[in-house]
Amino acid sequence: MNDKRAAIWIAWWLAASILLVSCSVTGGESAQPGEEAGSVSSDPFEMTVRHTQVGDSKKFRLALLNEVVRKTEAAVPGLTIRLDAVDAEVNRKEKLRGEMAAGKPPDIFDVFGSPEAGLYAKEGLMLDLTPILDELELRDKFTTLDPFTHDGKIYGLPIGSTIEGIYYNKPYFEEKGFSVPRTLAELEQVADAIKADGKVPFAQSSKDAWIPLMLTNNLWSYYAGPGVTYGFKTGDTKWTDPQVVEGVEKHQEWVEKGYFKKGELGLDYADMREQLISGEAVMMMDGSWANSIFRDPEQAGELVGQIGYFNLPPVHEDDPIVVMQDANNGYGFSAAVAKDPRKLHAVKLFIKQMWNEEMQLRGLKEDGVLPAMKMDLAVMNSTSDDPLLQDIFKALNDIDKSYPAFDALVQAEVNTELSIGIQQVIGGKIGARDMLMRVQEVQEAANAGRE
């Protein structure tokens, strides 16, 4: 055998050997998206998923998460996923902030895209999902990823989309001859009649400020326009602009007129829903996510099928329907995951199990969460003939202009000042105008980068 033929034979033998080893490792199949080629250890390892699916109102959401966890564990040898349940407000404002400050967030965690994910990503604490979404061919499948996109990279995924509007007792409306209001003035006429009948017009609980601020946010966006909140951070608009003040003063007026239950500052979120379920109140401003409560006999009892939904009406009948609509709440992933191939592989499989059309439609049908992924309206309608969901689908279709919630657009310290302020307005300790002057001072300091 001459040297040339020997070299060719050796090269062929090496190539065949490499191919044989490769086949033995991968089982003769190429790795699928989200799968890692190469030898996979079955040694035990653990990951933590921080979630906020706490309480009866979130039991359906928790069931879906549990299913995703089981499927991910089954697909990853040696993996055990530990679920860590924390109240949403505690997680957002205390627990996760502390963990991020220490540089040790959970592997997977509930997070708001804006502003939190951007801040954490800036510190290098969140996993860049952009290449993973490209690998899984998911990047273009979402209605929006804007809240989780920072400097062109994606740092989290929304679990669903939401709108905010008014739930109401349909039999009571029918008994009194009320129609769905077309203007704020008509809504006030209905509220006045309800109050005169000895009932609470609007269920409300304000122990956590974000709950009443749903109404406040929608009101100032009607009076000042849906784009006004974008300008606070840039300085193009101010909290003290006359129309913003007018919107917040309308909320204050409703408090003074007795549209809400006395003592609302001492009541938590569950109390608000109970006011509507018990018949004490007739209407309630809340997010579309709350619909699952009113479709569950264990929680709503005889009111199942008796609760309707409509968008908060505009100031004038011919004005556009303006509604808070966003996809800002979801899951993020620790940047440390990228250092561990097994954990990174598990994250990819978790994403594949959680974000697909089947799970999004199940989330809609079983929990009433509007899909975060692109979905034909006809497909959504065919998912459920539940009358409350049909009302929400109609409300979604009727929106002319939408905007994200204010806390996705302003700095954390501004959110804190506004939260304190709205509770003081509700308690009668300060007027809306003076409160907004304080918020504007904090806004200007935040904009200037001052403490």
What does this 3D model show about the protein?
It comes from Paenibacillus campinasensis. This is Extracellular solute-binding protein. InterPro entries: Bact_solute-bd_prot1, SBP. By secondary structure, this protein is of the alpha/beta class. It has 2 domains: 45-161 and 327-375, D-Maltodextrin-Binding Protein, domain 2 (3-Layer(aba) Sandwich); 163-325 and 386-447, Periplasmic binding protein-like II (D-Maltodextrin-Binding Protein, domain 2). Helix content is 48%, strand content 14%. The protein is built from 19 helices and 13 strands. It has helices at 3-26, 59-75, 88-101, 113-122, 130-135, 170-176, 184-196, 210-224, 230-234, 242-256, 269-277, 291-294, 297-300, 341-354, 357-367, 377-383, 387-398, 412-426, 432-447, and strands at residues 45-51, 79-85, 108-112, 149-150, 153-154, 157-158, 162-169, 200-203, 281-287, 307-310, 322-326, 329-333, 401-403. Strands 7, 8, 9, 10, 11 and 13 form a 6-stranded mixed sheet that branches. The protein has a 5-stranded mixed sheet with strand order 2-1-3-12-6. A two-stranded antiparallel ribbon has the order 4-5. Strand 4 (149-150) and strand 5 form a beta hairpin. Helix 8 packs across helix 10 and helix 18 packs antiparallel against helix 19 (432-447). It is globular. 42% of the residues are buried.
